[in-house]
Design a protein that fits this description.
about 240 residues
Amino acid sequence: MTIGTELYLELLKKTILFEIWLEHEGGNATFQNRLEGLDWPNIAHSMIGRLRMNQLHQAMNIVINEQIPGDFIETGVWRGGACIFMRGFLKAHAIRNRRVFVADSFEGLPAPDPKYPIDATSTFHTQDFLRVTLPEVQQNFNKYGLLDRQVTFLKGWFKDTLPTAPITQLAIARLDGDMYSSTMDSLTHLYPKLSIGGFLIIDDYSIGYCSAAVHDYRAMHGITDPILPIDNYSVYWRKTK
């Protein structure tokens, strides 16, 4: 990696997270909150925070250095920031044989499904702040000059889009669905496509609905790879079998 590549990717992080202009965010935007992804930004293109963004960067570096095959995906993208960084990373490294899949309803989160009683108390679907349209996300990619044919948008509920998505193999699957249903649907349809050595990242592991789905899926499929913390809210593991 050249110094220019490092500088570009660091500036891209700062811009996506709006760190350079944090004083203009208002609300509870502080350095510490943005570091840990604790605030819901008014302006920034991502709410995952610096620690989670750094972990995503590290995972992509490892995937490239170890030549782990496959594309990148995020399920639940909000304004698209993490996916924008994925595409920026590929462009900075002149990698043309991997794609970034951007999966979201672009209409907010689904109402609780009776099939998953644990989600019954979820109110995420009432949060207008979480609804970001597909044209808005596409425009955000375009602002960085990163809207191109290596980016594929999957619009709709995960249970509908992921089973038929044109995904053959994944190196990184970043799940940010919050709910049991969204997390289980993502794991069910994506984990079998994750390469050995690939990264499975769970953004909202601290939310009970989400972590329950993670542990249920792991138990059903005998997954024993250690779950490693990113910060107080998110985790990941690497697939070994």
